[in-house]
DNA sequence: GTCCACTCTTGGATCGTTCAAACCCGGCTC
DNA sequence: GAGCCGGGTTTGAACGATCCAAGAGTGGAC
């Protein structure tokens, strides 16, 4: 009668002539097992094709090595392409660190918080990855308060949780670090590089096409444009705002280009930039005499590469790697081993044809 | 002393003055418990905030209600946007049926199969969702052979696994249904509707801009264009092929439009269509006399809506719903309850401005 | 009043792993 | 040689649920 069922610790133990615990030790703390015994056990494991049952382990240790991630609403924050790449990178990085990603859905932040609780108590999920942080985000606070490991893609956009520390110490609770673990891309540095690139090419009136004020990400990117102007010691020019979208981008660009002095457009996203590209082409047709208009986008989506759009590339792989690193450390209970809890990653300007319109000085 | 730890069945049982099994029955087969007892137990559950520990349950029952999904390589098969929406819909549908999605990464099909085995024996995953099926796909065969529940988004593109049934019956193995569970979108019907729509508008020479031959999805969409022509009793016109991409689309469109009789372009994807749109605008500029050229795309990505591109919308939600339905049935061991193991869903033509160029008859 | 049938409840065993403490045994000290 | 030490290994219990078979309770029929 062959061993039909999958082998367990006991099966392996019998085969190697030791006890279950010794087998367990070989797997979890091999250094405390005498080398020859270890060898014998390893051979038995190999012969039987034993694989540890993580469910049983989880029941005992209360560690799942599972990370929860809410599928963010498609239209929200990070755009489709970016999310896709992030999910990819995150899955790979997590897997490399012995973690797994579990998805869940939630209608809003409140539902998401309920789901945290739910997943935590029923499935024993170890931690969460949050995306699309925004100002007034209640999720981070809740997770901190419940001592649940988490890290966010996106920095906290609130001014400062000032009342927090005071309140905690007043109650005698050990003062937690007011800031949670997060990784973000330095949008400011991105648009600053893009703007500087255009200034270097001789452009002087560079318009910024942004999202409506109030979104942290958008305001941050706007700030980079401002900063480049300040550093150059110049007066900054036009700002036009619109919701994200190609058509919206065209409209915003047209408004900006109504100012005849504008020779370049720094856009808050590739969608806006694509729309702007359209407007610029139309303009070149209707006003052939006007100086060529340069454009930069943001996100470096595949479509940007296709149409030759200069754009700011987000190193998503790095973001995912750092997030996993931070979560892994929190789960292992050694958060002090990770030097930075807050990481700003500098994006990279990818220069293509749409910004190559050299401009007379 | 307050009850600090999370409540278990025993905690609830004590509170309700019954045994653990009764509590379990209330949860799993409430109909066999006397109403007043049930009421009392439910109250206790509620008061204590008891939540069943799925890990413990899983250890006993060997059911995880977990579905594995490989994060498909970004460039592959279904394009980014579609994948994104699919993941979304799948997560929601699964959650609605008491299932969860767990992601994993794999470099190629072989690695994916290894991961099936791995996830199955260690994590006890119940089934898998496969995307990007292709001809010569070894994954489905492996899963069938190992009796692991799965369903694919995408039909099997192989001619016919003819040798399969014969081989199986020769070995005395009970003949499995040769076909596995799959759900796909009827691309043929989609391009057929698009082409018919253009024929109805008076267009006669409608070019098809497709992918290189050999991809199941691409050939299927090509077939729809052919079918519409045949049904109309007309000679079909030009075909141009290119890899997916905006720039590639522009190039292909230019080649097609070299034929002066062509007045419309049916494109295999929105990317190609966007490129074609570019080519058509350029043409309108350089040859103002030429009749306006109509365009249709495929996938109905957000960008299509933005630029007014007529496109074929894939009802991804339905795909996800059917896949979950099939997997749920397989996991519950009642596959016969699902009427169709193979589902082709008809897409919907979304008419926008790019195909509204009425054409003289 | 006794017995039976039926319904609901109960305690024990089990899934596969890890924790905690006990055990064994050779080497060393006094 | 008794006692102690300590590395290496074993044993018993626990994690929290479900399965199984047997126990208790109720009501009706004779």
UniProtKB/TrEMBL annotation, chains A, B:
Entry's PROSITE patterns? HTH_LACI_2
The HTH lacI-type domain covers 7-61
Any GO MF annotation of the entry: DNA binding
| InterPro entries for this protein | HTH_LacI (IPR000843), LacI/GalR-like_sensor (IPR046335), Lambda_DNA-bd_dom_sf (IPR010982), Peripla_BP_I (IPR028082)
Listed A to Z, the keywords are: DNA-binding, Transcription, Transcription regulation
- Give the top-rank taxon of the lineage listed in the UniProt record for this protein: Bacteria
Classification via Gene3D superfamilies: 3.40.50.2300, lambda repressor-like DNA-binding domains
Q: Where is this region: Disordered?
A: 154-179
> Which protein, by its recorded name, is this?
LacI family DNA-binding transcriptional regulator
Originating species: Myceligenerans pegani
Q: List the taxonomic lineage.
A: Bacteria, Bacillati, Actinomycetota, Actinomycetes, Micrococcales
């Amino acid at each position: 009668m062959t061993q039909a069922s999958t082998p367990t610790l006991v099966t392996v133990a019998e085969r190697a002539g030791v006890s279950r615990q010794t087998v367990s030790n070989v797997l979890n703390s091999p250094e405390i097992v005498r080398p020859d015994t270890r060898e014998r056990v390893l051979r038995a494991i190999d012969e039987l094709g034993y694989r540890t049952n993580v469910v049983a382990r989880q029941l005992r240790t209360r560690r799942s090595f599972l990370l929860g991630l809410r599928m963010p609403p498609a239209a929200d924050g990070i755009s489709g392409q970016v999310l896709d790449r992030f999910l990819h990178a995150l899955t790979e990085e997590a897997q490399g660190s012995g973690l797994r990603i579990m998805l869940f859905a939630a209608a809003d932040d409140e539902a998401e918080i309920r789901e945290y609780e739910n997943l935590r108590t029923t499935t024993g999920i170890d931690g969460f990855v949050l995306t699309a942080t925004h100002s007034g985000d209640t999720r981070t606070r809740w997770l901190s308060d419940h001592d649940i490991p988490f890290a966010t893609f996106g920095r906290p956009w609130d001014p400062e949780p000032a009342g927090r520390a005071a309140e905690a110490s007043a109650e005698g609770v050990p003062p937690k670090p007011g800031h949670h673990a997060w990784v973000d891309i330095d949008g400011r540095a991105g648009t600053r590089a893009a703007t500087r690139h255009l200034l270097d090419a001789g452009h002087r009136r560079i318009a910024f096409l942004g999202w409506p004020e109030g979104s942290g990400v958008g305001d941050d990117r706007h700030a980079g444009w401002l900063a480049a102007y300040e550093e150059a010691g110049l007066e900054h020019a036009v700002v036009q705002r619109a919701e994200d979208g190609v058509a919206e981008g065209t409209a915003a660009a047209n408004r900006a280009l109504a100012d005849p002095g504008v020779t370049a457009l720094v856009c808050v996203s590739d969608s806006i930039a694509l729309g702007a590209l359209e407007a610029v082409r139309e303009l070149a047709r209707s006003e052939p005499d006007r100086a060529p208009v340069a454009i930069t986008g943001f996100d470096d989506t595949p479509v940007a590469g296709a149409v030759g759009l200069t754009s700011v590339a987000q190193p998503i792989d790095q973001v995912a790697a750092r997030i996993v690193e931070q979560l892994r450390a929190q789960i292992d209970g050694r958060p002090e081993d990770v030097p930075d809890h807050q990481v700003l990653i500098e994006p990279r300007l990818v220069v293509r044809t749409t910004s190559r319109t050299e401009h007379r000085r």
